[in-house]
Design a protein that fits this description.
The complex is a heterodimer. Chain A is of the alpha/beta class. Chain A has a single domain (5-48, 57-112), classed as 2-Layer Sandwich (Transcription Regulator spoIIAA). Helices cover 42% and strands 27% of the residues of chain A. Chain A contains four helices and five strands. Chain A has helices at residues 25-40, 58-72, 85-94, 106-112; strands spanning 5-11, 14-20, 45-52, 77-81, 101-103. In chain A, β1 (5-11) and β2 form a beta hairpin. The longest helix of chain A has 16 residues, at 25-40. Chain A is globular. Chain B is an alpha+beta fold. Chain B has a single domain, classed as Heat Shock Protein 90 (2-Layer Sandwich). Chain B is 31% helix and 28% strand. Chain B is built from three helices and five strands; from the N terminus they run βααββαββ. Chain B has a five-stranded antiparallel beta sheet with strand order 1-2-3-5-4, covered by helices on one side. Classes of the chains: A alpha/beta, B alpha+beta. Chains A and B meet through α2 and α3 of A and α1, α2 and α3 of B.
Chain lengths: 113, 138
């Protein structure tokens, strides 16, 4: 685990990743490395709790697009919750919300993913 | 009377764009911009800085000028790189990127244009100036 990923847990077979700080190339690669490790172990559903990530850049978000693409190959899914408004807007502009889902709360995410 | 301005000179080093966003936040508060406006300015600034750092192949510094107008904040991001032809920059669509070989990156200009009220690009083989404007809406 690096500084960007502060906690990883599982709930109902969903891997929940908590992040902290700037989602840039380094943060994005930390998430993708973890997701690909978990996919190799058979996990296909992932949630990212972005409550402590108030700032992103398009390089970091592009890595999430790569993750979405990999998950499609195994019928997997990824979702996000606790997004700052600008992060949600960025995801919307970049089209992530067409291929993954933003949830309000962890409970809603775990129930619906 | 000359309008107030702030000038930054950023070295091309990882995460230096965050210095620009911190400055933008202070100026936004001074101008009583909303939190959403401030966040949009910061996001656009990050993308403009990344473009200047990565794509311009500039070797020196990137300059950022914040111009505080009565009814708007104008930000100029200036590099001394190789320039680019905006007409050759395709509008990115995620549908063209997912499941295809196309690179997943290339969203910077699109984000800047969506988040700011107006954007102008001046570019030649001696550098690029991106001029972004956010109108004050209290």
């Amino acid at each position: 685990m690096n500084d960007f990923i502060t906690n990883v847990k599982e709930n109902n077979s969903i891997v929940i990743i908590e992040t902290n700080g700037y989602l840039n190339n380094v943060g994005g690669e930390a998430v993708s490395t973890l997701v690909y490790e978990k996919m190799a172990q058979g996990k296909t559903k992932f949630l990212i709790n972005m409550a402590s990530t108030k700032i992103v850049n398009s390089i970091g978000v592009s890595i999430l697009i790569e993750i979405i693409e990999k998950l499609q190959e195994v019928n997997g899914k990824i979702g996000y919750y606790n997004l700052a408004p600008i992060v949600a807007k960025t995801f919307n502009i970049m089209g992530l919300t067409k291929y993954s889902t933003v949830y309000e709360t962890e409970e809603a995410a775990v129930n619906e993913l | 009377m000359k309008k107030p301005s702030v000038e930054l000179r950023l070295p091309i080093l990882p995460n230096m764009e965050l210095i620009a966003t911190q400055t933008a936040e202070v100026i936004s508060r001074h101008m009583s911009l909303t939190d959403d406006q401030c966040a949009e300015i910061s996001m656009a600034l990050i993308e403009a800085c990344i473009n200047a750092f990565e794509h311009s192949k500039a070797e020196n510094n990137v300059f950022i000028n914040f111009l505080i107008e009565d009814d708007s904040l104008v930000i100029k991001v200036i590099d001394q790189g190789i320039g680019f032809d905006k007409t050759k920059v395709e509008i990115p669509k995620i549908e063209n990127k997912i499941g295809k070989d196309e690179r997943k990156r290339g969203w910077g200009l699109q984000l800047i244009q969506e988040l700011m009220d107006s954007v102008e690009f001046e570019s030649n083989d001696e550098g690029t100036t991106v001029t972004m404007k956010k109108n004050i809406k209290h």
